Amino acid sequence: MSVALFSGGTKEKQNSQLLILKHGQKRVMVKRQRSYNHMLDSACKYFPSIPRNVVRLRTNQLDICDGFYADITAEIWDDVIDLLHVVEVTRGEEMTLPVPLPLDACAISSPDNQSASRRIHKHRSSGNDDKVAIKVLFPSGEIQTARISRESRVDKLVADSSASQILQHCPTPVRAVQLKGGTMGGVIMRENRSIGSYNVKDGDSINILPDPLSSPRGKKPVIYIYSPSDIDVSVKLSLIPEWTLSAIYPIVTTEDHGQRLEWNVRTHQDGSLTEHNSGLDVSYLFWEAETNLQAFPRSPASKPQPVDTFNPISSNLDDMNSIVIPVDKATAYLDESLKVLGLHTEARTSFISYWLPYILKHEYIALRFVPQSAYERAASLSISPQPDVVTRVFMLFRGVSKVHLTNWANAQIQAEKDVACWVDVVGVDVARAGDAALFRVLEWGGMEVFI
């Protein structure tokens, strides 16, 4: 391992010369250009899909932005350039879409489906009138345009050839919400109705939101406890407010609205546990939690979360903090990674067999393992007597379609590196974790995320 040391002045000077340009999932570190036009040139160089005449630079980092993105004009470039670390690169025509409304705020009554359809057909002619150009805002905050048939049903948008490429940006089940425009702007679009029945016009905007029933969950974290001799152990789990326990086994009473629990067990030298309250003999302790999206809604304007922090609602995967692999290589990669992280054969088998059906729904997956210290702040584990070593392995992953692999160039390179890199990321003491003479705790779990 090589270590580079910089004085404070050198590091500050180095940072002042660099800037991150971001478009979608792709991030590029470039020189900080004092000239606005030179900065546009850099943006065009690294994001050639955006024509020079429609490139726009924007930010949400300044206090005056109040968390929302705003265009950076040439007139103010010299005033703000030294205050920014990341600049969003986007198309000019993408900037007219307003901030998405909360789902409940959009819900208003709508006219009868048949009467609305009759009005549409009455004013429709042949040819290009059968399709409409719309703007689509995804849960990630990305904006795209598409031409779709007015006859397309809301629940069949994916099947429409002109919309399917757009909806690949959103790997989670969704519900469509008409956000602005049309005579019925601001209504929840019902799945069994056609796009045309809402009098959607060219330039109108549709907000694609995750289905509330498909919110991310911390799935199957299981806790193994190994002790050299049989002892009584208390295991307390405490979650942050963004999470609520949705399933536990053995079943015990939860507190604080489903955010705290305590198991009292007897350990055995063969690795099994006896839960005192029920008398059940189990191999491990199980819990699962769902995210509280209603209380803590995701905001498309939210800044990406640092890799050393973890929040079940806002945690993301991007080109700089993840690896990307095709699904046919996922099992081998996971087995190698979990092995170096200290998971024994049964734990690796259980981990992979549990997540494999979710992984196989995609062409490629991006994944990363959460640092134990960050995970501990979201799901605190207090065990008495105190174990000699605790190993907690929690994976985040998401689907990636083949057409978007260009946004994950760095993550594909990282996938070729030795999986031993995850040992330092997670913070595992592999030697002590495998020492049978010690009192050890092992936990594994994961979550599929959609941003």
What does it look like?
This protein has 451 residues and is an alpha+beta fold. The protein contains 12 helices and 22 strands. The chain has helices spanning 8-16, 36-46, 77-80, 103-106, 113-123, 161-167, 330-340, 345-359, 372-378, 409-414, 421-426, 430-433; strands spanning 18-23, 26-31, 55-59, 70-71, 86-91, 131-137, 143-149, 174-180, 205-210, 217-226, 232-239, 243-249, 254-255, 260-267, 273-275, 281-282, 285-291, 323-326, 364-369, 379-384, 389-400, 440-448. The strands form 4 sheets. The protein has a 7-stranded mixed β-sheet, with helices on both faces. Strands 11, 13, 14, 15, 16 and 20 form a 6-stranded antiparallel β-sheet that branches. It has a 5-stranded mixed β-sheet with strand order 2-1-5-3-4. A hairpin with a 4-residue loop joins strand 13 and strand 14. The two termini are 33 Å apart. The model is unreliable at 1-14, 94-128, 158-172 and 181-185 (pLDDT under 50).
Rounded radius of gyration (Å): 25 Å
**First-last Cα distance:** 33 Å
Strand content: 25-35%
How would you characterize the largest beta sheet? 7 strands, mixed
- Major beta sheet, strand line-up: 12-17-10-22-21-19-18
- The secondary-structure class comes to alpha+beta
Task: Give a concise summary.
This protein has 451 residues and is an alpha+beta fold.
Helices and strands in order:
Blueprint: H1 8-16, E1 18-23, E2 26-31, H2 36-46, E3 55-59, E4 70-71, H3 77-80, E5 86-91, H4 103-106, H5 113-123, E6 131-137, E7 143-149, H6 161-167, E8 174-180, E9 205-210, E10 217-226, E11 232-239, E12 243-249, E13 254-255, E14 260-267, E15 273-275, E16 281-282, E17 285-291, E18 323-326, H7 330-340, H8 345-359, E19 364-369, H9 372-378, E20 379-384, E21 389-400, H10 409-414, H11 421-426, H12 430-433, E22 440-448
Helix pairs in contact: 7-8
